[in-house]
Amino acid sequence: MNVRVVNRFSNGLELKTQLEQPIHPEIKANASSSEVKSLNLGFRSETPAADDIVIVEDLRKTYGRNIVAVDGVSFRVHKGEVFGFLGPNGAGKSTTIKILTTLLEKSSGKATIDGLDVDADQAQVRRIIGYSSQDVGVDDDLTARENLLLQCEFHHIPKDKAKKKVEELLETVRLIEAADRRLKTFSGGMRKRLDLASSLVSDPKILFLDEPTTGLDPQSRQDVWEYVTQLNRKGMTIFLTTQYMEEADRLATRLCIVDQGKIVAEGTPNELKAQVGADTITIRFKASDLSSCEKAKVLLSKLQGIEAVGQCGTGLAVENGLTLMTKNGAAIITQVVRVLDGAGISVEQLNLSVPTLDEVFLKLTGKTLNVVERKEAIRPNTRRGR
Amino acid sequence: MKLKMEMLSEIYAIFKRWNTKLTRQPILIFFSLIQPLVWFLLFTQAFSAIGGIPTFKLLTGTSSYITFFTAAVIIQTIASSALGAGLGLVNDLDSGFMDKMRVAPINKTSILFGKLFSDAITTVLQVIIILLIGLALGVHIASGILGTLIILFISAAFGFAWSGISLFVALTTKSSQTTLSVGLLTTFPLLFLSAAVMPLGLLPSWVQQVAKVNPFTYIAQAFQSLIINGFVWQKIEYALISIIIIGIITLGASILVFRKKIS
């Protein structure tokens, strides 16, 4: 049997994973079980305040009289999660992260990190945060090791402890062999890895990543995702901004979708995706085997969790196929297989297609996220701090 | 107390960083040394006849223009090095390194002072080389070793204070081009409207008026007196007072802008 998992992208691309083996619950598509579990944990009202490391209430940042970069956002970041800010250029992501990292003063509202006010308690806030900016903040004239040692000095870490820490970090980001080379010879990915390492020298309580993979090649992007996941697994709270829905989907436990300085939606990736609609399962039968299709239709209609069943032969994308709509395709698909197998119905192909965050964004704002790489175009924007 | 110790270690870390950066740019070192040499040779050759004017000897105490002009070379070198402070800062702002420093728990003043101390070391080295070239060209320093040390001290202090201008421009405009043009535009007119290139008495009267309120005049006269006459404490005093006034204004303004802009 042939099982396909299809991610719908609004730009028309389809990402397909072919699975030759009969499916098991563990390979139920991208929507992993952890995401499913987090469905009911995502609402902030249920979480006690003690677990919130970042509390932001009605935060505003205006420039002059007319330019509003951040327009009254409120959110909380729980300890131990990866919290994402997803939005297009100019949505106010960088401004928000700069306010939280004490680089910019807020115009009004409340913003605290671990109970410390980002403006009033600047000095203390700086001791507990790590920050990796969009422009990679490393010194090209120095070697990788020198860069990290310098960051240790900035954080007043004693020399012997610093040396150990630097070796450890170089090891983690796989730069130990290039440690004594000047950065002039480094690739973009290596520089970003070093930058990430340098934001970790002080063992921060929370790490802020401003568009960590913008402008990186696919391999380096994978590397960064890998490190972020690793760090989070070790208990690090991470706040990240991104304009890539794929990145938010992959990394964020919870996320805010932001547009024009406002939060337009908040939740786990699955919650947000559920807003735009159902997962679609399409089953294709052997050509002109209409009786199997009808039989399957009757059996599957009885399954719990199936919201709608299409007509045989008029499946969305499949000839002589059957289309099922469900809220939780990843969980349902195993049952579908079991039912079909039990009834001895042979199937040619099985597809699961889940909505993407891109579709969520499209639905909420009427715009598509800009997924095209435009590093240079982004830079001047951030320099003004917006 | 702990805070002060922390600040010292911050300044030292940033000082070290800039020194390392400098040693990794040999071309920069080469040009910063070649520049005073060019000045020495160009001006002293073109203007050597000035030394023959009878009033020149009367006003300065020497008939060697090259001896007189050594002070101008030192001042020009310090002023153009002072530009580097602002340019370095703009570089850090552009590269994102400044943000990295700003989110670290360090005092903002340390970021500026670390750079200024590193520049001061460069300035002292440059002035030593200028004096050595001068010696080779027949300049005799009347105040001897102690006077030379005072020249080096005044140079470092003046460089420190004068850097404030480029820091201020760099922080307010965040543009290396503006920083460079403002630096060049202030250095050259101030140099030629001072007693550095020509003794006050030989300048037209309106230039004399300008020169009397021009800090370059007082720095130049201190250097000239130490090189030509020996110790004339009043001139040294005037130089130090000018440096303190410039320093308070330019560095004070820079620190204020830096704190405000960024906090």
Protein model, in words:
The complex is a heterodimer of chains A (386) and B (263). Helix content of chain A is 34%, strand content 25%. Chain A contains 13 helices and 16 strands. Chain A has helices spanning 33-37, 93-100, 122-128, 144-154, 159-172, 188-198, 218-233, 245-251, 269-276, 290-301, 329-342, 357-365, 375-383; strands spanning 3-8, 14-19, 52-63, 67-78, 82-86, 108-113, 116-117, 129-132, 206-210, 237-242, 254-259, 262-267, 279-284, 306-309, 321-326, 349-354. In chain A, a hairpin with a 2-residue loop joins strand 11 and strand 12 (262-267). The model of chain A is unreliable at 1-48 and 370-386 (pLDDT under 50). Chain B has one domain (2-262). Chain B is built from 11 helices and no strands. Chain B is elongated and about 60 Å long. The two termini of chain B are 23 Å apart. In chain B, 46% of the residues are buried. The mean pLDDT of chain B is 91. Classes of the chains: A alpha/beta (386), B mainly alpha (263). At the A-B interface, helix 3, strand 8 and helix 4 of A face helix 1 and helix 5 of B.
Question: How are the strands of the largest sheet of chain A arranged?
Answer: 2-1-16-13-15-14
Order of helices and strands of chain B: HHHHHHHHHHH
Total domain units of chain B: 1
What is the overall shape of chain B? elongated
The percentage of residues in β strands of chain A lies in: 25-35%
Structure classification of chain A: alpha/beta
Helicity of chain B, as a percent range: over 70%
Our measurement of the CA-to-CA distance between the termini of chain B, rounded to an integer number of angstroms, reads 23 Å
Low-confidence stretches of chain A at least 5 residues in length (pLDDT < 50)?
Answer: 1-48, 370-386
What structural category arises from helix and sheet content of chain B?
Answer: mainly alpha
Summarize the main sheet of chain A: 6 strands, mixed
Which strand-content bin applies to the residues of chain B?
under 5%
Instruction: Give the N-to-C terminal Cα separation of chain A.
Output: 51 Å
